[in-house]
Amino acid sequence: MTGLEGQLAAAFLLDLLIGDPRFLPHPVRLVGAFALHVEHLLRRWQRLPLRAAGIAAVIVIVGSTVGVAQLLLMLCGLVHPLLEWWGGVMMLYFCFAARDLAGHASAVTGPLQSGNLERARECVGMIVGRDTATMDESEVSLAAVESVAENTVDGVTAPLLFGMLFGPIGAVAYKAVNTLDSMFGYRNERYREFGWAAARLDDLVNYLPSRLTVPVIALAAFFMRLRSAEVLPSVVRTARLHASPNAGYPEAAYAGALGMRFGGPRSYGGIQRNLPFLGIRHGACSIQTVREAVRLMMVTSFLFLMLGIGVRLVMQAVLTQ
Q1: 1-5: Cβ within 8 A, 24+ apart
Q2: Which segments of the chain does DSSP mark as H helices, in order?
Q3: What is 180-213 written as a DSSP string?
Q4: Tens of pLDDT, residues 14-73
Q5: Does residue 238 contact residue 255 with C-beta atoms inside 8 Å?
Q6: CB 234, CB 79: distance < 8 Å
Q7: Are 282 and 255 in contact (CB under 8 A)?
Q8: Which residue windows are transmembrane per the record (predicted)?
Q9: Half-sphere exposure of residue 214, counting CA atoms within 13 Å on the CB side?
Q10: pLDDT digits (tens, 9 = 90+) for 160-211
Q11: Torsion angle of alpha carbons 109, 111, 116, 121, nearest 10°?
Q12: How confident is the model at residue 77 (pLDDT cuts 50, 70, 90)?
């Protein structure tokens, strides 16, 4: 595989091997810094209503990110086709986050294993937005598992899908949209209007990946001898209870595969909230559940990649006949 299929496989392997080196400036962070600058400029220019300013921000930031990526690939191609190929691999690699996602979740299990609950709370607080100071071991484990389930799509399967459909530029465009949602997509005073476009566009681009990931989670659960038969019932009964139009699908699928429930009472900024339950079993969450969730994410990601490459190769064979 020397074409796009080879690029996807090489980028995925790179992510598994080295993850996100902290000593390098990650392009996503550069997009985030650019987004903050654009937001500052648009807010100062008060002729535009906030919602219109937010739409302009999305167009400028996503358009600029895609334009720079396309220019870099073109310049690489002018030097040598092989450099262009590897340039595409690096762009895809920066869009995947399987190893980092696994690492953040696994960092919680070490302190829990040694009985250091305070450190485990600190570790899980780095990947979730809820209050962690009073969490017990089960609640810390649940938060880590929910984080893995929630981020499987935007961290791995969605950029894989857009990479399969539109090449490295497609994955870069998706990552730019997802980054804007993580920065602007809040329903608070500051971003309710300005972040409207970023949030709605993120909902749109995640609609298909979130749903296509569900059967792959079920397949991964089957190979891992988890509760694969409960994935679909869990999704059908509970996915739509989630506040997000998309996040409930992978989360309910994970809950079904792991035999537990997500959601329930938790605190955000000292304010208690009761989220709807996702899942159809009342199983307890433990260190072992976190480990199973990480393995499920990895197997799901690998199967999604292999199935996508397989579909592309079959379609190419059919079209060339």
Answers
A1: 1/309, 2/85, 4/88, 4/163, 4/164, 4/167, 4/312, 5/309, 5/312, 5/313
A2: 4-18, 27-44, 50-79, 81-95, 98-113, 117-125, 137-152, 158-184, 196-223, 231-238, 248-258, 287-319
A3: HHHHH---STTTTTTTHHHHHHHHHHHHHHHHHH
A4: 999 998 877 667 888 899 999 999 999 998 887 889 999 999 999 999 999 999 999 999
A5: yes
A6: no
A7: no
A8: 52-73, 296-315
A9: 25
A10: 999 999 999 999 999 999 999 999 988 888 999 999 999 999 999 999 999 9
A11: -70
A12: very high
Contact 57, 197 (CB under 8 A): yes
Place of tokens 């340039």: 87
Supply the pTM of this predicted model.
Answer: 0.94
Task: Look at the alpha carbons of 279, 280, 284, 287 in this order and tell me if their dihedral is positive or negative.
Answer: negative
Q: What angle do CA 307, 310, 312 make, to 5 degrees?
A: 110
Quick one: pLDDT at residue 1? 59
Q: Cα separation of 196 and 203, whole Å? A: 11
* Pair of tokens at residue 69: 């990526």
Which three-class secondary structure state does DSSP give residue 264? strand
Determine the pLDDT at residue 68. Answer: 97
Nearest to 87 by CA among 159, 160, 30, 167: 167
Name the residue among 166, 253, 154, 255 with its Cα closest to residue 205: 154
Read off the amino acid at residue 113: Q
**pLDDT tens-digit map of 237-287:** 999 999 999 999 999 999 999 999 999 888 888 888 888 999 998 888 999
CA torsion through residues 176, 178, 179, 183, sign: positive
Is residue 78 classed as helix, strand or coil in its secondary structure? Answer: helix
